[in-house]
Design brief:
Largest sheet: 6 strands, mixed
Strand content: 35-45%
Number of domains: 2
Shape: globular
Distance between the termini: 40 Å
Number of helices: 5
Number of strands: 37
CATH superfamily of the largest domain: YVTN repeat-like/Quinoprotein amine dehydrogenase
Length: 495
């Protein structure tokens, strides 16, 4: 970089005074060039990733440290800084790197795109051009109907400055239409009753579920008492609530009587009948209080009479269920007819456990139910910023796989059929570690669903920046019907 103004005068005087003294030559940023070359096809159907080889060249004898930004530009349209590369280029050297780029992560249009290497905002070499062809699958296309559905609402900032709340869908009043419950951390919760097809009205207060006075974090509709209507469990940063449905869509908090008024700092809960007695049991996931002290989770057994007993000890010593948990999921991963349990833990603070997998081994000696911690044995004890869990048989091999959201790339755990799992997120093209140049992906809730009704489950991933200041587009991965996925996030318009 050339000195300017007064700095230029000082530099010139120093150059005169030091005439005759020679330092080893160092390359300036302006000396480095970068050439891009597609590796493999330069034309691919929409949703596929192009592999690009970048070669940096330094003609000077001294090293140069540079930050290269790869700008993806739609022909005749807008552009986005998609990836970056920080590199020390040795004198007279030509280091290389490769990266993958999927234009439909950001753009909806087919056609030609240029990938331009830049340093300090200026092009510095040979660009690469690629062509996006028509997709080989039907992209699902969504329309934002929030306003017309009456769901425009503003929620306050998160408690402790960390993260927002999770919502729940269920038929609260038994009219055959799905209703929406939205907890609130700093005010009354909302129960959006679908009062006509596709339109909603908030009736939380009149139906007794506004959760007033509590810090709402998560919720789930569930028929815990097996009477045929949807009850509601609300997870709070503090004492949880269990709202029993009276059959008309009006609710009474019975958490204390039922024994599930857990006081932890919880983001979510998971229901499943682990002992196959016909009554749903409850796993409460707790995170950490505002001072970042990790909170213990709880396992409650449904006694079938409206009450629950604490059976957390079945999962091992207290530290087995103490951590910064985000979500748990019940599913029969080994096909033996009972529900196993997986727990997604955040990786902070240091020393906290990774994710946990408990195999349900049924009634042991004396009729005591047995869970075995196979986290390490199954290969699922990832230490990561785990947040959400989605369950599906994404590869159609007749066993359950699962996905976990994260910071710096999602996990897709393929069930190997022998009690172990392998992370195939990168091979299946759903990892997406970066949203933009220099910005890691931060993903939260996620779910599988067959969005385009082709018989294969697709994956939706909700993203959001922790600070709330940087864009984090949501992610839509559509199955290619061969066990991998196509990134059709922008064409789906589901952000």
């Amino acid at each position: 970089m050339r000195p300017r103004g007064r700095s230029f005068v000082v530099a010139a005087l120093m150059a005169v005074c030091l005439a005759g003294f020679k330092e080893p030559a160092k390359a300036g940023v302006g000396s480095v060039t970068v050439t891009l070359t597609p590796v493999g096809p330069a034309s691919l159907p929409q949703g596929y990733a192009f592999t690009i080889k970048a070669t940096a060249s330094n003609p000077d004898p001294g090293p140069a440290q540079v930050l290269v930004v790869f700008t993806l530009t739609q022909e005749g349209g807008s552009s986005v800084d998609s990836r970056d590369w920080t590199i020390t280029v040795p004198g007279l050297g030509s280091p290389t790197t490769r990266f993958n780029l999927t234009p439909s992560q950001w753009f909806t249009a087919l056609g030609s795109y240029d990938i331009v290497p830049k340093i300090d905002g200026q092009p510095v070499g040979g660009a690469a051009s690629v062509d996006v062809l028509a997709p080989v699958v039907v992209p699902p296309v969504f329309q934002d109907v929030t306003s017309s559905a009456g769901l425009d609402t503003v929620l306050p900032g998160p408690n402790c400055g960390r993260f927002g709340t999770g919502a729940a869908w269920g038929d609260a009043n038994g009219d055959g239409r799905l209703d929406l419950y939205v907890p609130d951390e700093r005010g009354p919760a909302q129960l959006w009753i679908q009062d006509s097809p596709g339109h909603f009205r908030d009736e939380a207060a009149s139906r007794g579920v506004d959760n007033r006075g509590r810090v709402g974090m998560g919720a789930e509709f569930v028929d815990y008492d097996s009477d045929g209507d949807s009850d509601l469990y609300v997870v709070n940063d503090g004492i949880n609530r269990l709202y029993q449905n009276d059959g008309t869509g009006h609710f009474t908090d019975v958490a204390a009587h039922a024994g599930v008024a857990d006081p932890g700092a919880g983001p979510s809960a998971a229901w499943g009948d682990y002992d196959n007695d016909g009554s749903l049991d409850l796993y409460v996931v707790n995170y950490a209080d505002c001072t970042s002290h990790a909170q213990p989770d709880k396992l409650f057994h449904n006694e079938g009479d409206g009450t629950f007993t604490d059976q957390t000890s079945l999962l091992g010593p207290p530290d087995a269920t103490t951590g910064e948990g985000f979500q748990a999921a019940w599913f029969d991963f080994d096909g033996d007819g009972d529900q196993d349990l997986y727990l997604a833990n955040d990786k902070l603070p240091k020393g906290m456990p990774g994710n946990r997998m408990w195999r349900n081994d049924g009634a042991g000696g004396g009729g005591v139910w047995t869970f075995t911690d196979i986290s390490e044995l199954s290969g699922t004890n990832w230490i990561m910023a785990a947040m959400g869990i989605g369950i599906a048989d994404f590869d159609h091999d007749l066993d359950f796989d699962f996905a976990v959201s994260n910071i710096e790339g999602n996990v897709l755990a393929r069930n190997n059929g022998d009690g172990t799992f392998t992370d195939v997120a990168r091979a299946a093209r759903v990892d997406r570690p970066f949203q933009f140049a220099g910005r890691h992906s931060i993903t939260w809730g996620l779910s599988f669903y067959d969005f385009n009704l082709d018989g294969w489950e697709d994956l939706y991933v909700a993203a959001g920046d922790i600070s709330g200041t940087a864009a984090q587009p949501n992610e839509v991965f559509v199955s290619d019907r061969a066990g991998r996925f196509l990134d059709l996030s922008a064409p789906s318009r589901a952000d």
